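BACKBONE GEOMETRY TOKENS:
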Amino acid sequence: MSSGALRSFAHRRFAIVWTGLACSAVGTWVQIVAQSLVTLKITHGSAFALGAVLLSQAAAFLLFALAGGGIADAFDRRKLLLVSQTVLGVLAALLGYLTASGRIELWMLLVLAFSSGCVLSADQPARAALLPSLVPDSERTNAIALQSMIFQGASIAGPTLAGLAAASIGYAGCFYLNAVSYLAVLIALLLAGGEGNGARQSRQRLIHAVAELFDALKADPVLRAVLSGYAAVLFLTPSSALLLPVLAGSVWHISDAKLGALFACSGIGAVAGALLVAHRGDRGSKSVPYLTGLFASAVALGTFPSMRPLWAVAALLMMAGVGQAATSVITAALLQGRVPAGLRGRVMSLNTLLVMGIRPLGDFPEGWLIHVAGPQRAALLCAALIVVAGLLLLPRRSPFHSV
């Protein structure tokens, strides 16, 4: 294990916290699915209402992600996570109570989604900076890759568990299940113990803390390059929840069961991609797997909507998952590796802003494009734009080639 893809698990504190976060991530996915179903139920199938709930959480990230990064650097990240995970558990339990009592309304879902987004704006940067700090710097990329597996693996197991839980214990039970899952994180953080930040910064005003982040970006062209490419991938790639159901109904004409299997393929590919980067670690250039992942995901996006054999679609979805995971993990590794330890919460808040704020915004113009041009042409155009973004990073004069 000391030299393999799972070598970070040899460090006790990392293994404990990783396990707790993995349990909570599965619970989070159970709630995501159940919340969508509850929204559709109380609004009589309104897709607009569902979009509004998703947008309300994305709005919280857009407003507070950078401030959340400043908070993550100003406080002991382990103690901050103890507070944020407790609050998130209370919000999940409240959602369960409102659903079980029959009092749940759309405005309540909007408020709770926005509230959870506000808490997660500080929780996610703290979490992203804490876990890699529990291993030596030489294994940071490995730890970040294994951390990426938490979300990707949960995205496969969570929806399956959500379906079983919704059928057996109801939607309210799903929310209660998520609330209980936060106990795993709290126990893990208490067992891990110790200071979470390493070199925690002084508690300066948030505006100054954010300004310090942008000064670091201004001074490092590599970070600006990697963020621009990653932002292009996130914004220009239609989410699976947007693209796959449209293709399933209008192009492939497949059952819900087969559609569910295709959803899982992308997640399986992402787990495989994270494991590949974890095995590679910090050996060799980071620009090569980053650009390889970017172009691979673009090729897959541009081709799988036109495929008819489902085995080919599944293979390309796995390829897209591998590529996106490689780009994501390398981005996180570079973000954390090129700034001081006391700035890592803030720099990871940029990752949170992109994933949780910018990515959902991309689905709006892409949804319109799918409606106007059709899913196949829309996917091809988005893929071409991602390739252009990658080509801009290829010239030898690009600072990206120094890593």
